[in-house]
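stage 2 :: seqdesign
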């Protein structure tokens, strides 16, 4: 599985950005896909996850820090995962990574925000908020 992120950039506080994660090579029928972020000097943290794929139910998960402002979605026809980020704050500035792995619903529910849930990672896209 290969993941390629895009859509990062520089935005003023209060603005919006939409990140995309284009995937290729999926072979499982269900996946847990998540967006993580890492700011300089900080640990990588999960911000949003989704249980998807041919048999996935589309359940979504969010960290408290982004709930109500960020939305994760999936276009299975395009094998692309999106992260719509609204009302951006300076503390949202970070490198954003897409991660994915085949798994079942229960493990995605409990493990979506944990790094070792995922074997596949993108290269990241930078988000700057001023």
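stage 2 :: out
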């Amino acid at each position: 599985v290969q993941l390629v992120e895009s859509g990062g950039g520089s935005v003023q506080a209060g603005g919006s950005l939409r990140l995309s994660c284009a995937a290729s090579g999926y072979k499982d029928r269900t996946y847990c896909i998540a967006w993580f972020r890492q700011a300089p000097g900080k640990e990588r943290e999960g911000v949003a996850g989704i249980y998807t794929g041919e048999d996935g139910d589309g359940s979504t998960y969010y960290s408290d820090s982004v709930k109500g402002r960020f939305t994760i979605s999936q276009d299975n026809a395009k094998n692309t995962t999106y992260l719509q980020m609204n009302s951006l704050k300076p503390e949202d500035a970070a490198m954003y990574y897409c991660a994915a792995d085949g798994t079942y619903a229960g493990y995605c529910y409990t493990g979506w925000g944990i790094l070792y849930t995922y074997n596949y990672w993108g290269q990241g896209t930078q988000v700057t908020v001023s």
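stage 3 :: structure notes
- The first strand starts at residue 2 and ends at 6.
- The two ends are 34 Å apart (CA to CA).
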